[in-house]
Amino acid sequence: MSGARAAMEGVFAGDRRELSELEIAPQAALADEVRALIEAVIHTEVPETELREAAAAVAALTERLNTARRNRPPAARLGVNGMVKALGSPVTGVLNAIAPPIDVVTLEDGSVHAEFTLTDVYEGPPTFVHGGVSALILDHVLGAAAAANGTPGMTATLDLRYRRPTPHGVPLVVTARTVRNEGRKTWADATITGPDGRVTIEATAMFIFPAT
Ligand SMILES: CCCCCCCCCCCCCC(=O)SCCNC(=O)CCNC(=O)[C@H](O)C(C)(C)COP(=O)(O)OP(=O)(O)OC[C@H]1O[C@@H](n2cnc3c(N)ncnc32)[C@H](O)[C@@H]1OP(=O)(O)O
């Protein structure tokens, strides 16, 4: 079995250490603090001596956390369809400080939906979200829609149409749905919508369940 096929099998099978909600909470709280730290590092104007002290303090913390490590990011069976959620996902992972994180829900009609706000940590052009960050989020929700359809796959193609800039610091909506499946291939469509109700990005992707 190739790495890709094994990864897809893992979407539905529990092949990772699974944490309970009680185990997740304190580690998610730590990730929240690190998220705030990332923002503070970008915006701080404290003097150089304080920056050096802060760097040493963070290095000491990292060393402390590394005294007991897992060899893979953990998962939790909190999703629908018996799907396992990757707690370290850069989009939805509550344990990943670089994830916003976005809470993606599956609706009764099989589409997936999330409401979220991105801070200027994800800025590309001034005041707007980086296009690559939007692509990351869209790839994820498109993949989640394919998985929610019972047909997960690796992203084979991802097409984006950036219709207008996506602002940060305001509520955004992302939705995705599976539109077609043929054998190992699944197609899905998605949009990101701004607070004025206008679509900022349209996306379509094709996912392939690996042969081997
Ligand atoms: C822990 C769990 C968490 C769960 C969370 C759930 C949500 C997760 C959301 C995460 C979302 C994030 C997701 C991610 O980030 S996935 C990461 C990004 N994607 C990749 O890295 C994919 C890399 N590529 C591959 O692994 C393989 O090439 C794949 C699997 C895609 C195909 O390799 P395979 O060996 O199986 O294919 P085949 O050669 O037998 O060809 C079969 C057919 O497909 C056609 N074809 C092939 N490639 C392409 C292409 N690129 N465009 C168009 N067509 C293509 C080909 O012509 C043929 O067509 P036909 O002749 O039959 O007509």
UniProtKB/TrEMBL annotation:
Keyword Iron attributed: no
Sequence ranges assigned to domain Thioesterase in this UniProt record: 128-197
Coiled coil: none
Keywords: Apoptosis, Cell membrane, Cell projection, Cytoplasm, Fatty acid metabolism, Hydrolase, Lipid metabolism, Membrane, Transit peptide
Enzyme Commission number, as recorded: 3.1.2.2
Membrane-related topology note: Peripheral membrane protein
Compartments it resides in: Cell projection, Ruffle membrane; Cytoplasm; Membrane
UniProt catalytic activity: dodecanoyl-CoA + H2O = dodecanoate + CoA + H(+); decanoyl-CoA + H2O = decanoate + CoA + H(+); (9Z)-octadecenoyl-CoA + H2O = (9Z)-octadecenoate + CoA + H(+); hexadecanoyl-CoA + H2O = hexadecanoate + CoA + H(+)
Membership in a protein family: Belongs to the THEM4/THEM5 thioesterase family.
Listed PANTHER family: ACYL-COENZYME A THIOESTERASE THEM4
Protein name stated in the entry: Acyl-coenzyme A thioesterase THEM4
Organism expressing this protein natively: Actinocorallia longicatena
Organismal lineage: Bacteria, Bacillati, Actinomycetota, Actinomycetes, Streptosporangiales
